[in-house]
Design brief:
This protein is an alpha/beta fold. The protein has a single domain, classed as Alpha/Beta hydrolase fold, catalytic domain (Rossmann fold, 3-Layer(aba) Sandwich), CATH 3.40.50.1820. It contains eleven helices and ten strands.
């Protein structure tokens, strides 16, 4: 596809999605973490274009992106709303882009925006959406940090003995394991150094090209430098995942340089040793990177995986 046709497709898809979202948005509310920092998530509910819905999909995007700009999330939303699914989006501080702010403000945000705070916020968000999803006919879909945080949040709910009516969970490129921790730490260090002294070492700023294209200017997400390391260090607990009482699918990307297929296969092997192994599935997407879906990439395989996901 040449560049003229490429951007024509992007523009057309963007216009269609905006129109669909405007037609289907039923409500948008704020959910708080309930911690000392009391961070918040924006939870939006979009009703299917067809009232005879099959169920719901709940979207939790990754680090330094959100459901308004991420190609993967936008394609899932567009497909879902046009194929008899209600869509709920959960956007948190890890996708809250801001214009240039003062050092004091940046430091305050980085102090608050930790991985543990993210997990606590997702716990409350999962509780919040329970009255709005169709019991057992819904799919929670997380990508990257969203998938990892979703896993830890659901594990915490198991420990708290909190019941949910979730039908399935799909974890796209979850950041399980510490095999690539060295390269991740180096990437964080380089990013902090690239700030050119604008912010102190206690602040990690992350832009996203998709946001730049949308807004026409550079903005950043401000998080703790330990966020990524703490995420990769979170303990993988298949014993707790076994108690989710729902279908779980791990989706790996063949060319992922952040989380290798081999690492996820090792995690999945541990899951298959659990008593509910029949509920667990792993799929590897060929010719895909950590982002799963780039603009204009053929999304048929990804959508088929979601379409064929079993619920209760």
């Amino acid at each position: 596809m040449n560049r003229t046709k490429q951007f024509a497709v992007l523009s057309k898809f963007k216009d269609f999605l905006i129109e669909v979202k405007n037609k289907t948005l039923k409500w948008e509310n704020v959910c708080f973490s309930g911690t000392k920092n009391n961070s918040h998530a924006i939870i939006s509910y979009y009703a299917s274009m067809n009232p005879n819905t099959y169920g719901d999909i709940v979207l939790v995007p990754g680090l330094a992106t959100n459901t308004d700009i991420d190609p993967f999330m936008k394609n899932l939303m567009f497909w879902g709303l046009n194929h008899r699914r209600n869509v709920i989006t959960v956007d948190t501080f890890i996708g809250d882009f801001k214009d240039t702010i003062s050092t004091t403000e940046a430091t305050q945000l980085a102090t608050q925006n930790t991985y543990s705070e993210f997990v606590s916020l997702l716990e409350q968000s999962i509780k919040y959406i329970q009255p709005y999803v169709i019991p057992n006919k819904n799919i929670l879909i997380g990508h990257s940090a969203g998938a990892t945080g979703l896993t830890d949040a659901l594990n915490n709910l198991v420990v708290q003995n909190t019941k949910t009516n979730i039908g399935a969970v799909m974890l796209f490129a979850p950041c399980f394991g510490t095999q690539q921790r060295g390269s991740i730490d180096n990437a964080v260090r380089r990013r902090i150094e690239s700030n050119n002294g604008e912010y102190p070492s206690g602040v990690l700023i992350m832009p996203n090209a998709q946001d730049v294209w949308k807004m026409g200017r550079l903005r950043n997400v401000y998080i703790s430098p330990n966020f990524i390391g703490d995420m990769f260090d979170s303990v993988f607990r298949p014993d707790l995942m076994n108690k989710w009482n729902t279908n779980i699918t791990i989706v790996a990307a063949q060319n992922d340089t952040k989380v290798s297929v081999k690492c996820l296969e090792q995690c999945f092997k541990k899951m298959k040793n659990m008593s509910h192994a029949d509920l667990f599935k792993m799929i590897t997407l060929s010719d895909s990177q950590h982002s799963i879906l780039a603009p204009n990439q053929n999304n048929k395989n990804v959508l088929n995986i979601v379409k064929n996901q079993r619920t209760k």
